[in-house]
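#onboarding

Welcome to the new folks! Below is a worked example of what a typical request in this channel looks like: someone posts a single protein sequence, and someone else replies with the predicted structure as tokens. Don't worry about understanding the tokens yet, we'll cover that in week two.

Example request:
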Amino acid sequence: MPETYRPVTAQTRIDELVASLPVAAEVMRAFGLGCSGCGVSKYETLEQGARAHGLRVEPIVAALEDARASGAVPPIAEADRQPARRAPGAFAKRAAIAHTIPVMSGKGGVGKSLVTALLAIGLRRKHYRVGILDADITGPSIPKLFGLHEPMTISADPVKTTPQGQPQPLITPAISRSAIEIVSANLLTDREDTAMIWRGPIVASVIRQFYEQVLWDDLDFLLVDLPPGTSDAPLTVLQSLSIDGVVLVTMPQALATMIVRKAANLVHQLKKPILGIVENMSYFVAPDTGARYEIFGPSYAQRVAEIAHAPLLARLPIDPDKARLADEGRIEELDDAVCDELAERLLDRIAAHPKPKETISLV
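Example response:
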């Protein structure tokens, strides 16, 4: 046996294993694990990756050792592929969610969904259990960013019924490659261009359903990607959910700054905390010279932060790589320290401004 041989264990890091044993990526895909090719693999061991997806690590380790010996993917038992998810009606309280954080802008087109995705990826890299509720019902972007296309499954709740006496529908969230749980209106149908022609009160009701009638696993963080504006959908989230605080997204444009200030005023009127400001598309760094250009004009981020009485979490540059990965549904492959920086600063803010020590129980 060569001296370089290292047995596969639960503590083997995923990216190192795939680099030394390419067939490992195929073995992990056979278990339904797409994380071997995403950015989170640099941070996770096999045990951490298996736990995030609700799988037992022992069959994965055994299959990887078999693949090393044979050079091929061994047969995988169906029971070993099935995640241990919460069973409908197993108990009355569906899940415990430690922190709920809406991401808000007031104005459309500032990159709020991208910021939500970057925060989720950064938190997953720190081994937190993360979910995204895509509350932008009429313009959902989250499934596209994560490359999700299959409709979510809906089952009948064996315990709870509607006021009309019918079984309450329960939604099973989609799972991204790095085990981020995602619920979105675009995953209610197999056609991503289907228009959701719903009025405000219906939109607000759907958002509550996405929160209450979903088989979320216990989560450390639920990020809520809000639609632009200060009307029904944001009000539903800010008034109905037990949130830790809001992240506001803006861009370096006077018009965007004015509208984001409106959003900040709404949050203050509702007596909710603002955890921080993110300025997206803040500048562009020329790849050949390293010169920085403020394409949309000078930054207003600090001014917005002062008005919001919150710190500036980050100024994000215009980055063609982010845009390409987002368009291709491969945002989890992003290798950028900004994900970690955003997550660290958000965690610092939550630690500095804790909400009452209780979890959110979805009933």
